Amino acid sequence: MPPEQAVRRPGVVGWPMPFLEMRLVDEFDGDVAAGETGELLLRGPQMFAGYLHDAARTAAALASGGWLRTGDLARRAGDGAYAIAGRRKEMFISGGENVFPAEVESVLALCPGVAEVAVVGVQDSLWGEVGRAFVVRTTDSMITEQAVIEYARDRLATFKTPKSVAFVATIPRLGSGKIDRSRLIGTSA
Predict the structure, then answer these.
(1) Rounded to the nearest 10 degrees, what angle do helices 101-108 and 145-153 cross at?
(2) Is the pLDDT of residue 160 over 70?
């Protein structure tokens, strides 16, 4: 597929640059199949060799073979194009299943009455962690927690469906504009 067509595919960020190798791996550093989500690893002459005088940080950042751990979760389509699915540190495990907040958020963002949404994993005695959605309603929306959960349930696997919804005036953000998930987790306790 020509690159200009990939731009029209939602979530697709493109193909590897020249002289850059890309790999997707599972939590055991085994390669994942096309279409599966894995951590994005990069290798090439332009990548850094490590942290100066900090062997521990270098060991944490580099996998065997000189692969840089990006912390990004991605999927590779059959044509080799990559789509970012979220960040490894944002992923939570519910009942033994990996849940990627960005996937849940992209579904809930289309829910009528939802202006903004952020999803985090919160502790649960039965499942380990479950999703909690923080929703900013659109102006004049009266959408309920149950309506948001039902909307998600109709479009997502059960383990991905948030178990609770909190309505907030704004989604807290970091200086970079990214969602401040640690602040949301702190308000979930």
Answers:
(1) 110
(2) yes
Separation CA 124–CA 143 (nearest Å):
25
Residue 4, pLDDT above cutoff 60? no
Beta pairing partners, 94: 97
* Longest Cα–Cα distance in the chain: 56
Domains, the chain, with CATH or none: 3-86 (2.30.38.10), 91-188 (3.30.300.30)
Quick one: which of 120, 126, 129 has its CA closest to 165? 120
Nearest by Cα to 131 from 180, 50, 185, 77: 185
Q: What is the dihedral of CA 159, 163, 166, 167, to 10 degrees?
A: 70
Check if the beta carbon of residue 149 is closer than 8 Å to that of residue 84: no
The rounded mean pLDDT for the chain is 89
Three-class SS state of 84:
strand
